[in-house]
Known about the structure:
Blueprint: E1 44-47, E2 50-53, E3 130-131, E4 134-136, E5 143-145, E6 150-156, E7 160-163, E8 170-173, E9 178-182, E10 186-190, E11 198-201, E12 207-211, E13 218-222, E14 228-232, H1 239-242, E15 251-256, E16 259-263, E17 268-272, E18 281-283, E19 290-293, E20 300-305, E21 315-322, E22 329-334, H2 335-338, E23 341-346, E24 352-357, E25 362-366, E26 371-374, E27 385-386, E28 392-396, E29 405-411, E30 416-423, E31 427-433, E32 437-449, E33 454-470, E34 477-483, E35 488-494
Parallel strand pairs: 4-30, 5-33
Antiparallel strand pairs: 1-2, 3-4, 6-35, 7-8, 8-9, 9-10, 11-12, 12-13, 13-14, 15-16, 16-17, 17-18, 19-20, 20-21, 21-22, 21-23, 23-24, 24-25, 25-26, 27-28, 28-29, 29-30, 31-32, 32-33, 33-34, 34-35
Amino acid sequence: MSDRPGEGAGASPDAPFSVHHLGAPAVIPAMVGSMRARSLVLPFVIGAAGVALSARAPSSAHAAPPAFPLPSLSAPFPLTLPSWFPILEDRAFPSLPPMPSIGWPPPAVATSLPSVASLPTALPAATPGKVGPFTRGAPYSLKVRTDKPKLTSWINQVPFARFGSDGKTGLIASSKMARVVTDQSKLGATLASTHAHRSDFSPDVKRVVTSDEDSGELHIYALPSGKLERKLEKMFWSWGSYGMPHDAAYEVSFTDDKTVHFHNGCQLKSLDVSSATSAPVPIGVELCGRPTVSADGSRWVVAQEGKKAYGEGLWYAKVRTIDRTTGAMRVFLDESISGPMTDTVLSPVGDRLCFNRADKKLACVTIDDGKVEDVSDGPASRVKSFSADGKLMVYADRTGDITTTTLHVVDFTSRTVRKLTTVPRWLDYFGFFGGHRVYAEEQGSYAFDLDANWQMEVFTKDVEAQGWAALPGNPKKLMVSRASISTRDMYWADFPD
C-alpha cells in the first residue's frame, strides 16, 4: 500500500509516505514530492531534424504499443537537473498546460464489463450556506500550545518508513536499500529490495511483502529475520518496461497471514505465501488502470485513465470495484456523471472514494450506491487524508495564496465541514495519526489534536519538513524528518498529553 498520507493507492493514515504525483503525467512522474527529487531521467533523442522528446519503447516482455505514435528511437540518455532546478508543485505552477498521457498498456478485450445504467443521473444542486450536501460547521477553537514534543535523533538519509500493527516492527527504505526495524528503532537485516515503498505487513507481523520498483519483482520476507522467502519476477510494470516509474501501477496487500493480493496495473492476483511453490492466481479479466486497496485489504478499486488531460495529475474516466474472490467488476463512478476526476483517495475502510474535479474542487462518492457529493466549495489540495476509522478527512484550501494554509476537516458522520486552522506558511502534506490527531508539514510542521482542541508547532517555518511515519494506534509518538539538499534527518517525536 502507498506510504504517505492522503495520496494514491489505499493510503492508510497510520502508514504515511505516499507518492506526490505531479502535473506532467507523461514525462515527470519521477519528481516525487516526498523526496523532492533534484534529478530525473528524461528520454531525449537527438536526430537530424532536431531534438525529439519521447518515451522508451516497451520491452518484449510487455509488447504493448504506446498510446500515441512515436518515431523510431534510439536509447535515451540521462539528464541530471541541478539542485536549483524548480520543483514542479501547485504553488510553482498553478496551471500547467495539458500534456499527452502515455497511459497504461491497452487492456485485453473483456467480453462483458459492467454498465453504468444504475448510477445516479445528476449531481445535487448547490444550496446556499452549505458545502454541497454538507453543513458548514463552526470552526475548531484550538489552543495554541507553546510546549513542543521531545525530539530524539534516530537516523538519516532514509526517505521512507512504515510500521506494522504491533507498532514496533517496521521497514525503512531508500532508492538503494531497505532494512527491517525492530523494537521501534533498532535497525535489523538489510533486504534485497530497492525502491520498496510499496509494502504491507501481514496481520501477525511475521512477514512483509514489497514490490520492487526497479526490477518489477514481488518479494516476501520473514520477520524479524529479514529472510527472503519468495521472489517472483516480472510481476509489475517496472522502470525498465517503459523507461519511467509506474509507481501508481501496482499495489500489494496482505489479506490474511498467508495470502497476498497484488495488482500489476492490469490484473488482480493472489498468492499463497505459506507455500514455497505456489503460483500467482489471476482474478477476473484484465483491465488496466490505477489500483487502490483499502487498509484492511478487503476492497479493491481500479480507476481507468481518460483520454483528455485537464492540467495536473492523471485524469480518470471510470472507477470500478473488483471482488477479490470472484473478480467481478462493478462501475460505481463515471465521468459522464461526476466529470473528469484526479488524485483519487480510498477510505481506509473502503466505503468511499474522494477525488478532485477539473475545477479543483473536492468531491466524494459512496461506493455502494454511487452517490457523488461535493465536499469543498472552492479549489482544494490534491492531498487529502482519512482518519483510520474513515469517519474524518482533512484537506487544505488552494486559493492561490502561498503564504498561508487553511485546513478543513470533513466529518462524514455529522455531515459537516469545519475549518481547522489557518497558519502563516505553506503546508502541503498532512494526515492522521494515533486516532484523531493530524500532522501537517512542508515549511515547518504542526500537530493538531481534534479531540482536545490544541495545536502545537513541531518544526519552525525555516525548516523543510519532509516525511513522517506513524506508529499504528499510538497518539504520543511519531517519526518526523527534516531535510536539506544534501541530507535528511529523522527524529522520534514524543508528544506531551
